[in-house]
Amino acid sequence: MKTAWSVLLFSFLISIAFADESVDTVPDEPALRQTLEDYEEVRGELQALYSSSNELLCLAYPPAPPKLNHIPFPIQYKELGTKRDPDISFASGCEAFINKEGKLGSLGTLISKEVRKRKSTFLANSLQGMESTPRACPRWSQLHEDQKAHYWAWVFMSIAMAESDCKPGKTAKGVNGRALGLLQMEEVKHAKKAGRGEICYKNMLNATANLHCGLSVMEKQLTNGTRKAIFEPGSYWAHLRKSPTSSRIYERIALYDPCFKKPK
Asked: Strand, coil or helix: what is 104?
């Protein structure tokens, strides 16, 4: 593009310099030299203008962050173990959320898409408990949308690991009847679980239905009148808060690197 403009500019200056000469006239050396000097001067000014324009455009339209379809670090699974602490690794069934290469599985993709639909709730910079106490994600406001969406896939994977070893068909004895599925949702309605809608009492042994229930509960938790932090006492999943009885959920959530480490 620059070369084409340079050729046009030089041709234009030549035509002006010798506009009054007859067709048979051969330009003398001084005149040609002056034309070349004029060309170099004008070309330098145009190049400076071109560079300034590009800088202004970059300021006005900063490049968008790259789209990600994976978590930018490997995942440790229980079968592989970890030297650091095998108790906070993940079972193989959790690969449906995020696999060991960091790519989102079918359930992780579901979570990522659903929280984007409700970004004013799940992706807001002001979420309590992220950068405020207990600082679950100190760099939350610096993360871009992909990283925040993936964070929630990580959170639900951590909950599912603690509740069911990421097994959609798992059942267990709960406080009020059976607990079902990935997030161990109680089968029987109870006054203390008023935050759960009808969606939470249908087909809870289906992974997708169970996660839709979990998303609904989490959304209500984040949008209730006081916007109570999900990591504080009184939240639906009491084990999300950092404590000796946390079932390692909080510790697993804290392994999400973008929350704590600046990208290299």
From this structure: strand
DSSP summary character for residue 138: T
Instruction: Write the pLDDT tens digit of every residue in 105-147.
Output: 999 999 999 999 999 999 999 888 788 877 888 999 999 999 9
In DSSP notation, 141-200 reads: GGS-HHHHHHHHHHHHHHHHHHHHTT-TT-EEEETTEEEETTTTEESS--GGGTT--GGG
Global pTM value = 0.68
Q: Which amino acid is at 78?
A: K
- In terms of phi and psi (left: phi > 0; alpha: psi -120 to 50; beta: otherwise), the region of 247 is left
Name the phi and psi angles at 98, rounded to 5. -145, 130
Structure tokens at 18: 């010798």
| CB distance 93 to 59 below 8 Å | no
Q: DSSP letter string over 246-263?
A: STTHHHHHTT-GGGTS--
Q: Which of 263, 156, 252 is nearest to 210 (CA)?
A: 156
Q: Distance between CA atoms of 188 and 197, rounded to whole angstroms?
A: 12
For 54-63, letters b (16+ CB in 10 Å) and e give: eeeeeeeeee
pLDDT (mean) for 62-84 = 51
Q: Who's near 102: CB < 8 A, 6+ residues apart? A: 70, 71, 72, 73, 74, 75
Question: Which amino acid, residue 9?
Answer: L
- What is the C-alpha separation between 89 and 157, in angstroms, rounded? 11
